[in-house]
């Protein structure tokens, strides 16, 4: 069921992109044009492409909500960590040993030894 809704969702998205690109540009971005029939002058006449755009947009929103509900139902009662697998991996014996805590501390104030990096 999820795959069917997802395919419909993708087809609606592609159709919506195509219909929006086919529409005539009103010009004057952000309402800066003084041409007739703009958003600031009242309700413009509804064209066929405008109606198709609204229908595709409503279908796109419905399939988005449906996919969200399906995903929530599938994941109810489980965690992402539960789906990963058998828990933590066993420690391998080849892993290098961690340095001792005293090796990580800076030298003391009375230590006059030069600060030369060690290769071990």
Strand content: under 5%
Mean pLDDT: 77
Strand count, sense and barrel status of the largest sheet are: none
Summing up helix and strand content along with how strands pair, one would put the structural category as mainly alpha
Indicate the multimeric state.
Answer: single chain
* Distance, first to last CA: 59 Å
State the gist of this model.
The protein is mainly alpha-helical.
Which descriptors would you attach to this protein?
single chain, 120 residues, mainly alpha, 0% strand, elongated
Structure description:
This protein is mainly α and 120 residues long. It contains three helices and no strands. Helix 1 (2-22) runs antiparallel to helix 2. The model has no long low-confidence stretch (mean pLDDT 77).
Secondary structure elements and pairings:
Blueprint: H1 2-22, H2 48-74, H3 80-84
Helix pairs in contact: 1-2
């Amino acid at each position: 069921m999820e795959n069917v809704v997802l395919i419909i969702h993708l087809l609606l998205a592609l159709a919506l992109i195509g219909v929006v690109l086919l529409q005539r540009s009103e010009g004057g971005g952000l309402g800066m044009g003084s041409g007739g029939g703009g958003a600031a002058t009242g309700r413009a006449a509804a064209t066929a492409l405008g109606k198709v755009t609204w229908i595709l947009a409503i279908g796109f929103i419905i399939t988005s909500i449906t996919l969200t509900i399906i995903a929530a139902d599938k994941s109810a009662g489980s965690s992402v960590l539960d789906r990963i697998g058998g828990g933590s991996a066993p420690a391998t014996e080849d892993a290098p040993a961690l340095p001792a805590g005293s090796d990580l501390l800076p030298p003391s104030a009375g230590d006059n030894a030069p600060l030369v990096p060690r290769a071990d």
